[in-house]
Amino acid sequence: xxxxxxxxxxxxxxxxxxxxxxxxxxxxxxxxxxxxxxxxxxxxxxxxxxxxxxxxxxxxxxxxxxxxxxxxxxxxxxxxxxxxxxxxxxxxxxxxxxxxxxxxxxxxxxxxxxxxxxxxxxxxxxxxxxxxxxxxxxxxxxxxxxxxxxxxxxxxxxxxxxxxxxxxxxxxxxxxxxxxxxxxxxxxxxxxxxxxxxxxxxxxxxxxxxxxxxxxxxxxxxxxxxxxxxxxxxxxxxxxxxxxxxxxxxxxxxxxxxxxxxxxx
Length: 265
Known about the structure:
Largest sheet: 3 strands, antiparallel
Shape: globular
Strand order of the largest sheet: 1-2-3
Mean pLDDT: 83
Structural class: mainly alpha
Helix content: 40-55%
Number of strands: 5
Order of helices and strands: HHHHHHHHEEEHEEHHH
Low-confidence stretches: 1-7
Distance between the termini: 46 Å
Number of helices: 12
């Protein structure tokens, strides 16, 4: 399955998910996890639907290297299983080989010590001060500030669309599943989330019905919707560029930031 076919299939399966009794948050998480799996398969290239059990084991092992929580690993498995069921295929997650490895990997994740720490307002301010004026810098400022201010997980960040951002005076309102998040301008322009988001949308000329955060190649050209892995790489790269140690810093550091720290921006 090539990338174009994977994208087409993901769009069709999104329509199927819309007809299933799931919470909005679960539906979007499943869609994001399936899109990542399909993209991974397309890059190999391998068939994502139906997926071979051994292929799924390789994929889960790759995910485990990123040290996710056991619950997130289970979400990935459940998403892949649900898509197979909706298309009339036997879920590869039911295969004994996959079940054995899934138990091993989730056990490993469950006993992995918590190594991710929440970012502080001071660290975020240091990161913002070290960004430049290239297109990727506009995106990364908006990405990190939205994640921190709204306490969004990577899966929620990458699912945001431009239409999910509504201007409210000098602030903005984020329309995320099951809730609305109001974000004020803040005390300092360098860490103003509304300003960063509006600047990014304008600089990239994003369309209302498109994704809010997209990939950008080395030539400054926009790509498709950003992946969760992409968010992690951006957070660590920006922290490193600001002179911070990336030990304990990941994409999850954004939503782990405390409410007291958010008030300092």
